[in-house]
Specification:
CBS domain, CBS domain-containing protein, alpha+beta, CBS_dom_sf, CBS_dom, 554 residues, single chain, 4-stranded mixed sheet
Amino acid sequence: MQRAWMVRAGRDGEWEQDALRDGMVVAAWPGHLGDLGLYRNRDALHQAVADAYPRTDVVRTRNWTGQLWKLADEMSEGDWVVLPLKSTKQVAIGRVTGPYAFRKEEPEGLQHTRPVEWLRTDLPREDIKPDLRNMLGSLLTICELSRFDAVGRLGRLATDGVDPGTDKPEELRGIDTVADLAKEVEAKGPVPMTIRDLLALWDAGSRNSAVVDRMRADLAGYGLSTAPPFTDGSIDTPIRVLSIGAAPETDATGGETAFHLITGGGEPAAGNTSETTDGAPEETEEIEDTDTATAPEIGLRISHLLSAEHELLSIALDGDVITAQTTMLDSGYDQLAVVDDNGSLVGSISWRSIGRARISYDQPTVADALEDGDRRAGRKDELLGWIDDIVKTGYVFVVNADGTPAGIVTAADVSERFGEDLRPTVVLEEIERRLRRALTVFSAEDLYHYAKQYKRSTIADKKRRGQLRPLSPDDLVFGEYYNLLENDEAWERLGWRISQQILLARLDEVRKIRNSVAHYHPDPLSAKQIKSLDGLRSMLRAAHSDARPGGGAG
């Protein structure tokens, strides 16, 4: 029976290009396990894993064994495999073509492999419907995708890029309006979802000011709010929709403060549940203010860079340094959050601070190895106020109002976000420059002639009122590019050997994207929007270089 799997290529995607180039999936496992094919059964492999990681608890070593056994024994030729690409935020899909192979001479991250024929390496994550896409958020390196007809849907995605599944996660099916959501909250209590799922109830894909105002008004009208606020965090941040009159929960494992506390023995502790003596949770979570009079957000906040994909690992203040080191080796992290008995963040520990402590102490504790300085930012802190600290130290921890850790923002997160914001601006600038240069074929009178055919044209309006100086392409607004290129006579004069219909469709999409970029909101452009920008830029580059001599486009 054909099955489907997800296999990551390193915690930070460091082996992705090797996997795609060499046609394989890899289990980027550190440690000297040797050829997995030599172990006669799963128990034998577990013993080897336990021997390789003697300080790791049995729960974790059995989990690792299960993942490695899937690669070595359970996968079969013809199975589908998905590789989430951290470098591009896209997804690769392929088929397993052969048995497990141990590549002894390769680095540890490239030794345990399966051959794969990659059929698609640039699928936008957004093209995968939420139920299947959410399964790719597993923190496991290797896992089976056994629900939601993953096998059949991956086949369609690989061949034609279309996911035949539903747009809603299973637990949200039947919730199509805010009224449906209110009924679900009344019947079952707080409803977990992502900010993206919530936006979909308003047919919105991003949080601009108009959308946020409408959502706040509608939620308030039904007596609903969210915790944490839906204006915080990235668009895929988990939230809970709850009744404003209900006491919010503090769930240390799946709510706002989602982190794992590593105790001296290496096992996850229960964390801080903030429960009162009668079992009712205290009101410690921040809730979205649905008062429509609330001023709109201005600028980026720290919380906008928090990612639902990042696991925040913590260690107790009275823990031991060996556990901290092993946890950082296992996770690939350079630092851990340090929390007290109440689960509140008290500082951090890093390779640098551990090295310093080992010079000063024979057997340093976590408390001895705390980093100097306060690296705790509030969720509502402005990002710009923390930029210098993040660049200098490489990271800052983000805390909730009650002092518990909410996540971490690194220099890489800041770089990625500013890249996401800057790239569309640069591409849009090139698009406009190319359009204006191409339109120099038209004289001022030509532009007047074409503009007056459109009643809503600002050019024609100013011309009628006598307020227009001699006209050039630089005077056109973006919508007027569309009006001009829609005119068959003008299009013929350009001499472009590309489809007028396709270019106009892209130009209209980009017009809307340009408006979105010009009016600030905290969510970066989607992969589809970026594709529209790149597509129009490619057309204009080709059209300009391919224009007929004398056609005026050069």
